[in-house]
Amino acid sequence: MAVPDFQSFFLPLLKYSADGEMHSTKEAYAAMADYFSLSVEDMQEMLPSGKQTTYKNRVAWSRVYLSNGGVRLDK
């Protein structure tokens, strides 16, 4: 499976945060990898810059947009 676009992470992240607890970014990365059944290869795919993995970048951007919308996701 290819890594989904960042918008595809919105709903799963909202559901993940629905328990009212604060979750670290590291926990969110793991939860989203599980949710989308990402393979090791998917999780190792790098951005063209070579500085960050694609899936972590997309999860991070999704968290930024949700946070800007008022959703608290961080510890």
General shape:
globular
Unreliable runs: none
Number of strands: 0
Largest sheet report: none
Residue share in helix: 40-55%
Name the helix and strand elements from N-terminus to C-terminus, one letter apiece: HHHH
Q: What proportion of the residues form beta strands (DSSP E)?
A: under 5%
- Count helical runs: 4
What is the arithmetic mean of pLDDT? 91
Q: Tell me the structural class.
A: mainly alpha
Radius of gyration: 12 Å
For the terminal residues, how far apart are their CA atoms? 30 Å
Describe this structure in words.
The chain has 75 residues and is an all-alpha fold. It has a domain at 26-70. Helix content is 52%, strand content 0%. The chain has 4 helices and no strands. The longest helix has 15 residues, at 54-68. The termini are far apart. The mean pLDDT is 91.
